[in-house]
C-alpha cells in the first residue's frame, strides 16, 4: 500500500475538522445549527473522497455529480464504497437545506453523523491501510524528537491538557529552531570548545564566558536568539514570520540539559493563564506543525555534496599554520607529532603560493599550511 502523501493527509485532516464542526453544531439546541451541521458533513465527505481519489490515482472533477465520485473510485478499486446510499441521502438533504431552506430533521442529522464517522474509519482501514486516528500531519515530520514532541502535544490537546500542549509544542519548536542558539558550551571558554562556535547560531557577543556570567540568570537564558538572522532565514525559507514569533510568544521558554536530557520549563503566568488557553493551544498546535513541516521541506529541497577532506602528509612536524593564505601573515607551529592532517581545500594564496586550508578540532586550530611544507 502506498504511503499517504502530504496533500492526502492535509485533506483528511480538513475532512475531520469539518466533521468536528458538524458535531459541535449538531449538539446545539438551536435548530438553525442543523443547517450548519448538514453542510459541514457534506463538505467533510466530499473532501475525504478527494483525498481517497488522490491516494489511489483517480482525478475527480469538482463539478461532477456527487454520486459520480463513488462510481469513479469503485471503478479504480474494483470494490464498492460503503454507505453509498446513505451518503447520497446526506447530499440530497444538504441540497434541500442550502438551496431551498428546508430544515433538516434533528434525528436525521444525528444519524448522518454516525454514518460519516463510520465511513471515514472503514475507508481508512480498507483502502488506506491505516487507522483514522493515526492519520496526522505529525507523522510526516522526519525528525524523531520533533515528531515525538508534536505527537505528545496532539494527544494532550485531544484530552484537554492544554498547558501540556504548549510545553510539548515548544519542545518541538526548540528542537527545530532554537537548539542551535544554545551558548551553554561556552562556559569557561576553553580552547577545545572554540569549534562549537562554528555550529552555534547565537550572536558572536553571546559566545563567551563573560557574557554568560553577566547575563545568564536562569537556564532558559542560555538560548540567545539572533533576531535579525532568524527573520532573514524565515524570509529565505518562505516560513511565516508572524506565525514563528506567535508560537515563540505563546509558549513557555525552555532549555534542554544535554547531559541528562532533562527539560527546564519557565512557568510563565501569562503563558499558562486559563483565560483563552484552549484557543491558544489549538493555534500553537497547528502552527508549530506547519512551521516544522515547512522547515523540513526546505531542508529536503536543499542540495549539498557529501562532506569530505583531503589528507595531506607534512614534510616535518611543527610546520607553520598561517592565519591567511600568505606567509607574511601571523602564524603558529602545528602541535608536535602531527605528520598527517585533514584539509578542507587547497587554493592559490594571496602571495601566489599554494595553500591548504586546515581545521583541527583537538586541539582547535584553524588556518593555512603552505604547500612548501607538504610532502610531495
Task: Give the number of DSSP strands.
Answer: 8
Helix content: 40-55%
Q: Kindly report the spatial arrangement of strands forming the biggest sheet.
A: 3-6-7-8
- Beta-strand content bin: 5-15%
User: Can you summarize the main beta sheet?
Assistant: 4 strands, antiparallel
Mean pLDDT level = 90
Count of distinct structural domains: 3
Tally of DSSP helical segments: 11
Tell me the distance between the termini: 57 Å
- Shape estimate: elongated
Residue ranges: pLDDT <50 for 5 or more in a row?
191-196
User: Helix/strand/pairing class, anyone?
Assistant: alpha+beta
User: Which series of helices and strands comes N to C?
Assistant: HHHHHHHHHHEEHEEEEEE
Rg, alpha carbons: 29 Å
Brief rundown of the structure:
With 376 residues, this protein is an alpha+beta fold. 48% of the residues lie in helices and 11% in strands. A hairpin with an 8-residue loop joins strand 4 (320-322) and strand 5.
Task: Please specify the SSE layout and strand pairing.
Elements: H1 6-27, H2 32-56, H3 66-77, H4 84-100, H5 106-126, H6 144-158, H7 162-178, H8 209-215, H9 227-237, H10 241-250, E1 254-257, E2 262-265, H11 277-301, E3 310-313, E4 320-322, E5 331-333, E6 340-348, E7 354-360, E8 365-370
Antiparallel strand pairs: 1-2, 3-6, 4-5, 6-7, 7-8
Describe the structure.
It is a single chain. Helices cover 48% and strands 11% of the residues. The protein has 376 residues and is an alpha+beta fold. Residues 191-196 have low confidence and may be disordered. It starts with 5 loop residues before the first helix and ends in a 6-residue tail after the last strand. 28% of the residues are buried. The chain has helices at residues 6-27, 32-56, 66-77, 84-100, 106-126, 144-158, 162-178, 209-215, 227-237, 241-250, 277-301, and strands at residues 254-257, 262-265, 310-313, 320-322, 331-333, 340-348, 354-360, 365-370. The chain contains eleven helices and eight strands. It folds into three domains: 6-135, Four Helix Bundle (Hemerythrin (Met), subunit A); 144-301; 310-373, SH3 type barrels (Roll), CATH 2.30.30.
Amino acid at each position: 500500500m502506498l504511503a499517504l502523501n502530504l496533500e492526502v493527509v492535509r485533506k483528511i485532516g480538513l475532512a475531520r475538522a469539518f466533521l468536528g464542526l458538524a458535531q459541535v453544531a449538531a449538539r446545539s439546541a438551536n435548530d438553525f445549527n442543523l443547517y450548519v451541521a448538514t453542510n459541514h458533513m457534506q463538505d467533510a465527505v466530499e473532501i475525504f473522497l478527494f483525498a481517497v481519489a488522490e491516494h489511489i490515482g483517480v482525478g475527480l472533477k469538482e463539478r461532477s455529480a456527487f454520486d459520480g465520485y463513488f462510481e469513479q473510485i469503485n471503478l479504480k478499486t474494483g470494490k464498492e464504497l460503503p454507505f453509498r446510499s446513505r451518503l447520497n441521502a446526506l447530499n440530497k438533504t444538504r441540497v434541500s437545506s442550502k438551496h431551498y431552506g428546508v430544515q433538516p430533521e434533528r434525528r436525521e442529522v444525528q444519524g448522518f453523523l454516525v454514518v460519516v464517522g463510520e465511513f471515514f474509519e472503514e475507508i481508512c482501514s480498507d483502502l488506506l491501510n491505516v487507522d483514522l486516528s493515526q492519520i496526522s500531519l505529525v507523522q510526516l515530520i522526519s525528525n524523531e524528537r520533533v515528531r515525538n514532541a508534536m505527537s505528545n502535544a496532539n494527544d494532550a490537546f485531544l484530552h484537554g491538557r492544554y498547558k501540556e500542549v504548549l510545553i510539548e509544542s515548544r519542545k518541538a519548536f526548540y528542537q527545530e529552531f532554537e537548539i542551535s542558539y544554545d551558548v551553554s558550551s561556552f562556559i569557561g571558554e576553553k580552547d577545545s570548545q572554540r569549534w562549537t562556535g562554528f555550529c552555534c547560531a547565537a550572536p558572536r557577543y553571546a559566545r563567551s564566558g563573560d557574557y554568560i556570567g553577566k547575563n545568564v540568570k536562569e537556564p532558559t537564558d542560555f538560548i540567545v536568539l539572533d533576531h535579525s538572522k532568524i527573520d532573514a532565514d524565515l524570509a529565505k525559507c518562505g516560513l511565516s514570520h508572524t506565525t514563528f514569533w506567535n508560537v515563540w510568544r505563546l509558549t513557555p521558554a525552555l532549555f534542554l540539559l544535554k547531559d541528562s536530557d532533562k527539560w527546564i520549563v519557565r512557568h510563565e503566568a501569562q503563558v499558562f493563564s486559563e483565560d483563552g488557553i484552549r484557543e491558544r493551544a489549538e493555534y500553537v498546535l497547528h502552527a508549530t506543525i506547519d512551521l516544522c513541516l515547512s522547515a523540513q521541506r526546505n531542508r529536503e529541497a536543499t542540495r549539498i555534496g557529501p562532506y569530505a577532506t583531503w589528507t595531506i602528509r607534512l614534510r616535518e612536524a611543527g610546520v607553520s599554520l598561517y592565519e591567511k593564505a600568505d606567509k607574511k601573515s601571523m602564524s603558529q607551529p602545528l602541535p608536535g607529532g602531527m605528520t598527517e592532517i585533514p584539509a578542507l581545500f587547497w587554493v592559490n594564496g594571496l602571495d601566489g603560493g599554494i595553500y591548504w586550508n586546515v581545521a583541527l578540532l583537538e586541539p582547535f586550530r584553524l588556518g593555512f599550511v603552505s604547500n612548501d611544507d607538504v610532502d610531495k
